[in-house]
Predict the 3D structure of the following.
Amino acid sequence: MITSTISQYDSSTLTSAAYNYKHKTLTVHFNHASYLYTGVSHSDFEAFNKADSQGKALNEFIKGKYEYEK
């Protein structure tokens, strides 16, 4: 059973993201900082992860919807 996954991105702002399926946490690593989003649904993570642009997907599926800490 997969409990977490890490993805690397070719993006000007995001470098990578890690998702924990059990705890529903998404850690997004930027060039300047990292953010931990909590309670992220599997479907929102998949939409974010498979998007053509993770920056746009972060704004569409994650930001403003889930609590986070820097």
